[in-house]
Amino acid sequence: MILLISDLHLQEERPDISRAFVDLLEGRARHAKALYILGDFFEAWIGDDAMSPFQQSICQALRQLSDAGTAIYLMHGNRDFLLGQDFCKAAGATLLDDPCVVELGGEPVLLMHGDTLCTRDLGYMKLRRYLRNPLSLWILRHLPLSTRQKLARKLRSESQSQSRMKNTEIVDVTPEQVPLVMAAHGVRTLVHGHTHRPAIHKLVVDGQPARRIVLGDWDRRGWALQVDEQGFQLAPFDFN
Ligand code: MN
């Protein structure tokens, strides 16, 4: 059995979500061969060298799961793209490229965070190109801690005020983009998060039936995609 989750937006201010996540790690995830976390795992991440005690406790909880034999795979989201190899090493996790294709349930499956599918959000796509090129990443990682903290606060307040103003359609995926990306990777199944619109969408790719599985964000409840002999099952669950 394999589990896929995303968009937990873990933060100290939401101990209910962190508790639900640790419950998952100590419960269902123990029986999983692998746990995939497809981005926006943390609400914010300014560098592996600036881990708060809260973030360290999450790292430790992941470590316990990987020590118990579950493989952990992490993908960057738009909020935690500075998560680096130091964190992954400490957590016993493997960082995945976005996008990447993995074998799940006997078929190749394309995994993405999902933000790159939202191509109509021109302002965000521009910001993403600017922030995520190797030179910017290098500079960001080497800025003094206080500067990174200030920058993170600024980005966060800007993205909050912008998403309030934007038409909700803009921040969903561009429908025409999906079959193109799937065909380019030769897959019939895509799993992504980011949009906070959990669903399984049927579509046609290269004349073949295909599906786009959107993971849910964790807020009032959690979401997980379980892949086992029964197939791909996306379901919410209540926090204890
Ligand atoms: Mn996101």
Total of domains = 1
Q: Within the CATH hierarchy, at the fold level, what is the topology?
A: Purple Acid Phosphatase, chain A, domain 2
The CATH architecture name reads 4-Layer Sandwich
Number of strands: 11
Q: How many helical elements?
A: 7
* Beta-strand percentage range: 25-35%
Which features characterize this protein?
240 residues, alpha/beta, Purple Acid Phosphatase, chain A, domain 2, 6-stranded mixed sheet, 5-stranded mixed sheet, 7 helices, 35% helix, binds manganese (II) ion
Would you write up a description of this structure?
This protein is an alpha/beta fold and 240 residues long. The chain has one domain: Purple Acid Phosphatase, chain A, domain 2 (4-Layer Sandwich), CATH 3.60.21. The protein has helices at 15-26, 53-67, 85-91, 122-131, 134-142, 145-165, 177-185, and strands at residues 2-5, 34-37, 71-75, 93-96, 100-104, 107-112, 189-192, 199-205, 208-214, 221-228, 231-238. The strands form two sheets. The protein has a six-stranded mixed β-sheet. Strand 8 (199-205) and strand 9 form a beta hairpin. Helix 1 packs parallel to helix 2 and helix 2 packs across helix 3. It is globular, with a radius of gyration of 17 Å. It starts with a strand and ends with a strand. Bound molecules: manganese (II) ion.
